[in-house]
Amino acid sequence: MSASDSRDALCAWPLRVVAAAVASIAAFGLMVTPARAVTGPLSYSSASGAPLNVVTSEAIITAGADTDGLDVRSLGGAGRGGAVTATVTANISAPGSGSNGVLLQSVGAAGAGPLSLTVAPGATISGGSGFAAGVQFAGGGANTLVNRGVVTSSLGVDGVAMLGGAGDDRVDNAGAIYGSIQLGAGANGLHNFPGGTMHSGAWITLGPGGSFLNDGVLSPGGPGRVQQTILNGNFTQSPQGVLAVDLDFANTGQGHEADRLAATGVAVAGGVVQVSVLNKGQARTGDHAVTILSAAGGVNGSGLGLAAPVSAITAFSLRFPDPNTIQLGYRVDFYQPGLNYNQSVVGDTLNPILRNGPPAGMAPVVAALFDIPTVHALGRTYDRLSAEPYLQQIAAAEDASRVFTDRLASCSRRAGDIALRDRDSCGWMEIAGRRTKHSRTTENQPFDERAVSVSGGFEKGLADRWRVGAALSYESAAGDMPYAQSSGGRVQAGAMIKHKVGWAELALAITGGKGRFSVVRSLDLPTRGTLARGVQKISFGSISARIGHLFGSRRAWVRPSLEMLGTVVQTDSFTEAGGGPLDLQVQARNNKSWRVRPAVEVGRDIELRHGVWLRPTLKVALDRVISGQASTLSTAFTSAPAGLFPMIFRTQADRTTAEIWAGLTLVDRRGFAARVGYLGQHGATTHQDGGQLKVVLPF
């Protein structure tokens, strides 16, 4: 028996020490590597075919081509090769071309002994490129590789983990193996134990009748890349086995779409398919399927389960299109049952946009949407993308127009009079504030607006019971929604004419105004803090016709009335900025509504002193929308291709609300008045409360 190291060993004296040790224990066939790192190949051989048993205790590192890390051979010549056993407890690296990490050989004219390699936990064997492997068995008989560490090559999964010999090769893996495996012509088997991981390369060649039993994790190509592995042999996956599959959305419908194991024999698959998705932002709308396991001799996947990412927009399934194939099916749909109308508008629009892959800038958005696990959470995200903040400005403008119209008739009758005298005239000024809240419904988001206004005008009495008036108003308002804020102002002007004919009091009022609001939508897509900003310009106006009658005396009265009010709100077109592909292009649009408002006002005059009277009043009304209950707005994402139908969002007001005005007025005999009052409007979703301070000066 002889022992030798290559010329690249650390130095000569360790070799002499090793040689002496080998000579002293030759009778036992045991060899131990030096107890220090070796920067060169380490080889042991027996020219007489004696058995060899080698245990490494320190790292071995080689450089250059065709330089194996650990080379152990039993050469029987005309006789029989002996058993070769090696135990690796430290790292071995041989990165050169044609270099094996470990080479074990047993040959002889009369036969060969078994080859046995054990890789201990924590140890890594790495071979080079070319015709080489992490581990190579040459010859031998009943050969065994037991791996509890790592077996790989310098090329990882693109290289060769193991090359078998002419004997019967068996690989038992409880560690990690990276790369392809090619065993010889014998009766071969591969067993991936629980806790073991196979990162297979392009092929696993087990030979005729060879079988692969997977109790651990089989990941073709390893995580993060798509790989097809051709298995020459049969495949069985136990109930505890895992077939880890990478699915690449960037290659939907093309090659390299998903990992695939293609067996030439029979496949019986239990356990689970564990799916990882690559390039989530490249998801394409539609139903897709890709083969992940096939077997020329037939495949039985009745015991196979699926562990896939939970996504509100993607549903995964296993499909069995024929007796030889198992497919991974996945359906990408941005619309899902359970979304409300406006949320569905977003989903229905994203589907055609993403049918052929995301347009520029949309991939990060799609990736974020894919990670949303539930339809409820998806709907809340779609709330961020909708145009509801701009729709709420339309509703707020309608409300502001209604409130302003009510202010136009503002002169106070003199203390002690039952009605205004024909020639009574006045100027007035009012400061008012109101808060309007629309609660969340199944269809719409909540909205909260706070407004402060300053108004002023006049009313003049003419002959023959005719009266005219006009007013101006400026209102500053700020609104909040869960994912948006707005701020701006409205300017209004209006005129009215009143006439008393017999028992009836007739009034006609016309108002018009403009508003400008800065709206900030908090998208938080694709990253937190992403904001879309828009400037919305609105023109609006109303026409009101009212008939009423006064019953009562100087001290107390009742005035029933009926009003028909029509309102139109026009939104100018504009485009947001700051939200990237989720910016909205808002189209110009008109919204009209008509409502009827029956009301009853009651009041009385209470004489105080010095000609001053206190006048408490209460007015209640029913506001009933008879057309135009829903406001709509047409928009499109700036990233949407030309020709796509616009997104039409809508918000729906309460059809019926109750209104109340309550006030206390101090008035004198000339018609000078100071009023403090409350106004409110309440419905199923509408809650408005406000106050006013008004001064009337007769002239």
How would you describe the overall organization of this protein?
With 699 residues, the chain is mostly beta strands. It is built from five helices and 50 strands. The strands form four sheets. It has a 21-stranded mixed β-sheet that branches. A twelve-stranded antiparallel barrel has the order 33-34-35-36-37-38-40-43-45-48-49-50. Helix 2 packs across helix 4. The longest helix has 20 residues, at 388-407.
List the helices and strands and how they pair.
Elements: E1 2-5, H1 12-24, E2 30-32, E3 42-46, E4 52-56, E5 60-61, E6 70-75, E7 84-88, E8 92-93, E9 102-107, E10 115-119, E11 124-127, E12 135-139, E13 142-147, E14 150-153, E15 160-163, E16 168-173, E17 176-182, E18 189-192, E19 197-205, E20 211-214, E21 217-218, E22 228-232, E23 234-237, E24 242-248, E25 260-263, E26 267-269, E27 272-278, E28 286-295, E29 299-300, E30 305-307, E31 314-322, E32 325-332, H2 341-353, H3 363-370, H4 375-385, H5 388-407, E33 426-438, E34 447-461, E35 466-481, E36 484-501, E37 504-522, E38 531-548, E39 551-552, E40 556-571, E41 574-575, E42 584-586, E43 589-604, E44 606-607, E45 612-627, E46 630-637, E47 647-652, E48 656-668, E49 673-682, E50 686-698
Parallel strand pairs: 2-4, 3-6, 4-7, 5-8, 6-9, 7-10, 8-11, 9-12, 10-13, 11-14, 12-15, 13-16, 14-17, 15-17, 16-18, 17-19, 18-20, 19-21, 19-22, 20-23, 21-24, 22-25, 23-26, 24-27, 25-28, 26-29, 27-30
Antiparallel strand pairs: 1-3, 28-32, 31-32, 33-34, 33-50, 34-35, 35-36, 36-37, 37-38, 38-40, 39-40, 40-43, 41-42, 42-46, 43-45, 44-45, 45-48, 46-47, 48-49, 49-50
Helix pairs in contact: 2-4
